[in-house]
Design goal:
Radius of gyration: 20 Å
Distance between the termini: 9 Å
Number of strands: 12
Structural class: alpha/beta
Protein name: FMN hydroxy acid dehydrogenase domain-containing protein
Helix content: 25-40%
Family: Belongs to the FMN-dependent alpha-hydroxy acid dehydrogenase family.
Shape: globular
CATH class: Alpha Beta
Number of helices: 15
Keywords: Flavoprotein, FMN, Oxidoreductase
Largest sheet: 8 strands, parallel
Pfam families: FMN_dh
CATH topology: TIM Barrel
Number of domains: 1
Cofactor: FMN
């Protein structure tokens, strides 16, 4: 049997409705029905180089595709005749003790200016209005200070950083982040070397960080002594490293393969969460676990939450939505909140905080074959 082709966006009729839109034009925001629609809009509107920077993955892009498709390999086990009428009120959560309106956040992504002149300012403003967490990237189009100046009063942000073995530079970054009001630091560890990005190289849009990096567990312990801010580890790709993060005092980890942009063949956040659930379930109780990668629907969020993930990150969807500015960012937030609530209701989950692995059949089905 011939292999089924990979679908960049699902066929929900958007081509029938918007297929005649001239290249370089933006659809109306109210024509965006689901989160995948924003990629369609960005691809149609942006110069190919700008779109490619957001879209590209490593090598043959297997991990990129797997991030998107892995969620459909596991079936739900819906419960019926359950009172779910108050499920929407259970959306709020805490992340490292900070209150938010929903269990998802804007993951750190570089170069938001490729989509909109206001760049990351749209993310910080949209996150404030939607009352969700934003993690600004070190290689943002706007500086740490510019993003901080756009924050709402009392708004919580976690600053993402790439670090080197140069202690002076690292201390300067820590001090800048704290002075700018960061409530936590996000240390990306899954990019020790440059990503092998063929698509990006073809269009001349390489990685924002191309150096070999000194990243070890001993160095992490040293970093913890250089700041009083919590340092979250982003880029955990195995249960073993999740255990080591606990051992070395990490307050939280993010399961991530860098959007499939670093090592092709690396597992998705969902696969790592499942591995931890099966091999080291105590990790979910000892520290907070977040995950990102390929999330496009409320149902995707629920599958991650069911395994014990505390909050879920989205990167590319917000970068694509940024072609509409802050209103696009806000619409993605609204869509995802709505989908999480209605999907939880249809799954028979009256309280999102009480979802557990029993709501999903965790053996791979044949839908993707």
């Amino acid at each position: 049997m011939a292999a089924r082709p990979f679908l960049e966006q699902p066929d929900t009729g958007i081509d029938l409705v918007l297929g005649d839109l001239p290249t370089g034009e933006l659809p109306k925001l109210d024509q965006m029905i689901g989160i995948p629609d924003f990629e369609w809009a960005a691809q149609n509107y942006l110069p190919i180089e700008n779109y490619t920077y957001y879209r590209n993955g490593a090598a043959g892009e297997w991990s990129y595709r797997n991030n998107l498709e892995v969620f459909h390999r596991y079936r739900f086990k819906p419960r019926v005749m359950v009172d779910i009428t108050n499920v929407e009120s259970t959306l709020p959560t805490t992340i490292l003790g900070h209150n938010f309106s929903a269990p998802f956040f804007i993951s750190p992504c570089a170069r938001a200016g490729n989509a909109h002149p206001d760049a990351e300012l749209n993310f910080v403003k949209g996150a404030a209005e939607g009352d969700i967490l934003y993690m600004p990237a070190l290689y943002a189009s706007r500086t740490i200070e510019e993003i901080a100046a756009a924050k709402a009063k009392g708004q919580v942000v976690f600053q993402q950083l790439y670090l080197t073995s140069n202690d002076t530079e690292t201390q300067e970054l820590f001090d800048r982040s704290k002075k700018a009001g960061a409530d936590a630091l996000v240390f990306t560890v899954d990019s020790a070397a440059d990503g092998n990005r063929h698509r990006a190289a073809r269009f001349g849009v390489g990685s924002a960080d191309s150096d070999y990096s000194y990243i070890t567990w001993d160095y992490y312990k040293k970093l913890q002594k250089m700041t009083d801010l919590p340092i979250i580890i982003k880029g955990i790709g195995s249960a073993k490293d999740a255990q080591l993060a606990v051992k070395h005092g990490a307050p939280a980890i993010i399961l991530s393969n860098h959007g499939g942009r670093q090592l092709d063949g690396s597992p998705s956040g969902l696969e790592v969460a499942l591995e931890i659930h099966e091999e080291s379930p105590e990790v979910f109780k000892k520290i907070e676990v977040y995950a990102d990668g390929g999330v496009r629907y409320g149902a995707d969020v629920l599958k991650l939450l069911s395994l014990g993930v505390k909050a879920v990150g989205l990167g590319r969807p917000f970068m694509y939505a940024n072609v509409f500015g802050v209103d696009g960012v806000k619409k993605v937030i609204d869509i995802l909140k709505h989908e999480i609530a209605i999907d939880a209701g249809n799954l028979g989950v009256p309280d999102i905080h009480k979802i557990n692995p029993s709501y999903v059949k965790w053996n791979v089905n044949s839908w993707n074959q």
